[in-house]
Amino acid sequence: MVPQQQPSGMPFQRYRPFPAIDLADRTWPSKTITAAPRWLSTDLRDGNQALIEPMDHERKREMFDLLVRMGYKEIEVGFPAASQTDFDFVRGLIETGRIPADVQISVLTQAREDLIERTVQSLVGAERATVHLYNATAPEFRRVVFGVDRDACKAIAVEGTRHVMRFAEQYLGDTAHFGYEYSPEIFIDTELDFALEVCEAVMDEWRPGPGREIILNLPATVERATPNVYADQIEWMSRNLTRREFVCVSVHPHNDRGSGIAAAELGVLAGADRVEGCLFGHGERTGNVDLVTLGMNLYSQGVDPQIDFSDIDEIRRVVEHCTQLPVAPRHPYGGDLVYTAFSGSHQDAVKKGLAALERDAAEAGVPVAEYPWRVPYLPIDPKEVGRDYEAVIRVNSQSGKGGVSYILQRDHALDLPRRLQIDFSHKVQAYTDAEGGEFDGERIWEIFTDAYLADNGPVGFLAHRSQTDSDGTYRIAADVRVQGEIREITGSGPGPLSAFCDALAGIDIKVRVVDYVEHALSEGSDARAAAYVEADIDGRTVWGVGLNHNITAASLKAVCSAVGQAHRAKG
Ligand SMILES: CC(=O)SCCNC(=O)CCNC(=O)[C@H](O)C(C)(C)COP(=O)(O)OP(=O)(O)OC[C@H]1O[C@@H](n2cnc3c(N)ncnc32)[C@H](O)[C@@H]1OP(=O)(O)O
Ligand SMILES: CC(C)C(=O)C(=O)O
Ligand SMILES: [Mg+2]
Questions:
Q1: How far apart are CA 316 and CA 485, in angstroms?
Q2: What is the mean pLDDT of residues 434-458?
Q3: What's the whole-model pTM score?
Q4: Which residue pairs from 508-514 have beta carbons closer than 8 angstroms and sit at least 24 positions apart in sequence?
Q5: How distant, in Å, are the alpha carbons of 165, 491, 548, 561 from that of 477?
Q6: CA dihedral angle for residue 502, residue 505, residue 511, residue 515, rounded to 10 degrees
Q7: 82: Cβ below 6 Å to ligand 1?
Q8: Which reaction does it catalyse (predicted)?
Q9: 248 CA to middle of ligand 3, Å?
Q10: Which helix (H) or strand (E) holds 457?
Q11: ipTM value for the complex
Q12: Considering only CA atoms, which of 435, 490, 484 is closest in space to residue 457?
């Protein structure tokens, strides 16, 4: 029987579902994003206004420089009428010539004459600048916050626009590229016909045309619906706006329901030309939409985001320093753990995927860094954002043979045969179960060394001499340590392993080799070899490992290692 869920007892009846949009012929669901939208970073405004401790001058400058380095060309740098600090920061950017010629700064203001004047004054001397004006248009805000009807609400926007134009003419004659952005705040809760009416009235004032665009930013100020609803709203606006070719439709999602990314992406499918957000999703409450995730999502689809994320840890460092807030370990693309597999089946698939990639690239004669990326569980190549494979596989109690053998291969070039991988991973598992937590490469090597290389079993290999008879019989004399004493043992057989086993039989150690694998560890004069022996000793199947400059010595050490394994298992 299916388990029966119980009523939560929480007062969910207080909430109403968000109404769907009547747009039966919507086109966005069957579209694909094929090019980067225009980006605006509002880290220095919406992000900054929501910080526990707003950024000081130094931090703001560091953030601005980072955004410029990454390639953002539209940057909202503050709310200059809010405080002297914000005003001075904008002045500082302009007066110190810090703004590259191809970067357009913008500043936000309420639709109040005195604030608009001060806002425009902050921009004097800028080559490229946008004034961004907002007023809330949603019914609840008209009623509760402003106490106005629709007409009075529209008048705030229109008069605000008029003031922006008048003050721009008065103060910004030298500004070569002056832009205007209008936001009907709480757009998502505003009746669509009214949002359109206000935007049209603002446009009538601004008069967009060739060479004179207007940015109409349609914010999901507080995200309240599934992202398909936002997409419908954007498509409806995009279709119904007049002078559309001179309008840049911009989306500004917040992340209250955790679907800000989806809202932005669907908004772009629905016709938005531009996206406003913050690095790692800082901003009011749950934050603005995250520009890093959006950009990297495009990248992972083979679309150039036109933003450089190649040193994601440096981006994260600067953002954490400026905001004084941490980026979560599981944050998409930038978190500490997002390129890491802990669980056995994931590790196994990643290990095989990386090996297959190398193989396929070599077969195709293409450098692996240029070969199409397809590795299970890793949506992108971590190297492309400055991460290495060190962190890709990490071991804890959830890990299996794939993970531990990957680490041995990565750190020590040991390519363990499959059954030895299983043998070793059981040993590691015993430790992780007992001790808990994560085991790093050093700890895994320690366990491997203790288990297979410690040379503390009943017989230790020291040296050997050999000769081959004319009939092909291999004869060996080996110096071994037995119970603290050095002894010479001798034996013969078709090859070194069988001859050594024959010699061991002479001191009552019976070994039957079942499988044997060897490989070189490095090239050149100090070449080292690894040998792996699977043996039947006293009715037990055990593995032994030997490392030496000489491949024969490595294989004889591996036999002694297997004897040690059997001895410990018996003990
Ligand atoms: C969704 C967003 O992120 S919007 C951006 C929000 N950011 C900020 O508010 C940060 C900067 N703001 C500030 O520093 C201050 O709010 C200031 C300097 C702009 C204004 O300060 P004050 O004059 O003290 O007003 P206060 O902060 O109380 O704002 C509320 C007033 O502004 C009015 N108001 C709010 N938004 C707008 C707007 N877009 N256009 C016109 N008036 C507005 C309200 O109706 C209210 O008016 P009232 O006092 O007559 O009732
Ligand atoms: C000022 C506007 C654009 C805003 O930040 C919002 O509505 O979220
Ligand atoms: Mg906002």
A1: 60
A2: 93
A3: 0.87
A4: 509/458, 509/459, 509/537, 509/563, 510/537, 510/538, 511/535, 511/536, 511/537, 511/559, 511/562, 511/563, 512/536, 512/537, 513/559, 514/541
A5: 99, 7, 18, 19
A6: 0
A7: yes
A8: 3-methyl-2-oxobutanoate + acetyl-CoA + H2O = (2S)-2-isopropylmalate + CoA + H(+)
A9: 18
A10: none
A11: 0.97
A12: 484
